[in-house]
Amino acid sequence: MALKTIQAPIPGTFYRKPSPDQPVFKEPGDIIAAGDTVGLIEVMKSFMPVVAEEGGKLAAFHIENEDPVMAGDPLYDLEA
């Protein structure tokens, strides 16, 4: 299987959960499909979903919940 690193599309703060009292969208090891939400990036109180463009197995996250990201920073690895 090929490993692909998915990058942040915009700068902001990365969130793995839809809200603090909710579970994470996805965990390493989960199978994801194209269109699945993997996380959110917040910029100036606006939240943009990070949506999988293709399916595969989520291998690992490169960042933690609530970490700042810049556009192009690695977010997660996908085994496709």
Summarize the structure.
The chain has 80 residues and is mainly β. The chain has one domain (3-79): RNA polymerase II/Efflux pump adaptor protein, barrel-sandwich hybrid domain (OB fold (Dihydrolipoamide Acetyltransferase, E2P)). Helices cover 0% and strands 49% of the residues.
The backbone outline, from C-alpha atoms, is globular
How many structural domains are formed by the residues? Answer: 1
Poorly predicted ranges: none
CATH architecture label: Beta Barrel
Task: Note the main sheet.
Answer: 4 strands, antiparallel
Please give the radius of gyration in angstroms. 12 Å
Return the CATH class. Answer: Mainly Beta
Would you give the CATH topology? Answer: OB fold (Dihydrolipoamide Acetyltransferase, E2P)
Helix content: under 10%
Provide the spatial order of strands within the biggest beta sheet: 1-8-6-3
Number of helical segments? 0
Q: H/E series, N to C?
A: EEEEEEEE
* Structural category: mainly beta
Indicate the proportion of strand residues.
over 45%
Pathway: Lipid metabolism; fatty acid biosynthesis
Keywords: Biotin, Fatty acid biosynthesis, Fatty acid metabolism, Lipid biosynthesis, Lipid metabolism
Organism: Chelatococcus reniformis
InterPro entries: AcCoA_biotinCC, Biotin_lipoyl, Single_hybrid_motif
